[in-house]
């Protein structure tokens, strides 16, 4: 008789799905802003500064030490660079191609994560995980029907997949894995803010929202970014990067649904089938046991 998943596994899986939903909603507000008056660098700076404030307050309330070891500082720096690159590449792709298409291309990253974990860290690939990945990939290819865009936008979205795969691997395999998720998120946002503040200075300064509606989109965007980052890091540290990356395909479902509702993007029967197969992969991953537990 198989044991049910333990509490950490359930919590980690739930965090991964909630993070995916947050990230799925993020493109809507981000695209509204970057296609209006804000450039990508300014939006990222705003997310970092505003998002780091509540995280700092939470860390102080929880009395979490803010100091890091030398190895942890290097790991957090790499995480910030990978996260910043991922966000920038995605936002730039939103200017050129549809949200649904950009998110679909971005979802090459679960394959890249599995390759990184297998080739570099010799991680075991279970049968259930391979089945879940198969369903996820079938779904992703299915939803690409009738999604078109220019080559630059497609390459930018593909680049974001590469940097996000690196981001996933660092979170699990580096010294950052021993750091509380909120603390990693805090330093991640600080590093990203500094990096893109320099970019804004080179580009000619920050651009800000102009209307009350844009300010509303901006603050909502920042809140979604913070919750998505924190939940994703918690999930990676709890259930691992590979499983988190496949569960995070729920982001694609959310982004496609948001694109249909907000931007009136079309959704065919084939795309609905793709959404169903992705949901199947999520369910399989939630029920999947660690190899050691199955062996026992």
Description:
With 296 residues, this protein is mainly alpha-helical. The chain has one domain. 78% of the residues lie in helices and 0% in strands. It is built from 13 helices and no strands. The protein has helices at 7-34, 40-61, 70-94, 99-106, 109-121, 127-142, 151-173, 181-203, 212-239, 241-247, 250-263, 269-287, 291-295. Helix 3 crosses helix 8 (181-203). The chain is globular and about 50 Å long. The N and C termini lie close together (11 Å). The relative contact order is 0.23.
| Unreliable segments of 5+ consecutive residues | 289-296
Order of helices and strands: HHHHHHHHHHHHH
Q: Profile the largest sheet.
A: none
Mean pLDDT: 82
Structural class: mainly alpha
**Termini separation:** 11 Å
Tell me, briefly, the overall form: globular
The proportion of strand residues reads: under 5%
CA-based gyration radius: 19 Å
Q: How many structural units, i.e. domains?
A: 1
Any key phrases for this structure?
296 residues; mainly alpha; 13 helices; disordered C terminus
């Amino acid at each position: 008789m198989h044991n049910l998943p333990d509490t950490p596994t359930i919590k980690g899986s739930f965090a991964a799905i909630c993070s995916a939903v947050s990230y799925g909603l993020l493109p809507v507000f981000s695209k509204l802003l970057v296609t209006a008056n804000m450039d990508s660098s300014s939006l990222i700076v705003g997310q970092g500064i505003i998002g780091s404030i509540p995280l700092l307050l939470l860390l102080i309330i929880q009395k979490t030490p803010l100091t890091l070891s030398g190895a942890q500082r290097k790991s957090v720096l790499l995480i910030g660079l990978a996260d910043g690159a991922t966000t920038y590449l995605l936002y730039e792709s939103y200017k050129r191609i549809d949200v649904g298409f950009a998110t679909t291309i971005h979802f090459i990253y679960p394959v890249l994560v599995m390759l990184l974990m297998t080739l570099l860290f010799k991680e075991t690939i279970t049968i259930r995980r391979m089945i879940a990945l198969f369903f996820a990939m079938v779904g992703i290819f299915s939803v690409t029907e009738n999604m078109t865009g220019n080559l630059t936008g497609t390459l930018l979205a593909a680049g974001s997949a590469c940097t996000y795969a690196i981001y996933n691997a660092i979170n699990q395999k580096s010294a950052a894995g021993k750091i509380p998720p909120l603390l990693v998120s805090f330093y991640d946002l600080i590093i990203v803010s500094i990096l893109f503040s320099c970019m804004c200075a080179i580009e000619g300064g920050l651009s800000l929202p102009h209307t009350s509606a844009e300010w509303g989109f901006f603050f909502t965007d920042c809140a979604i970014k913070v919750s998505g980052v924190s939940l994703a890091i918690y999930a990676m540290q709890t259930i691992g990067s590979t499983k988190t990356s496949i569960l995070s395909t729920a982001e694609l479902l959310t982004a496609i649904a948001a694109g249909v509702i907000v931007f009136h993007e079309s959704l065919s029967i084939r795309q609905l089938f793709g959404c169903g197969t992705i949901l199947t992969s999520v369910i399989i991953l939630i029920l999947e046991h660690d190899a050691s537990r199955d062996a026992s």
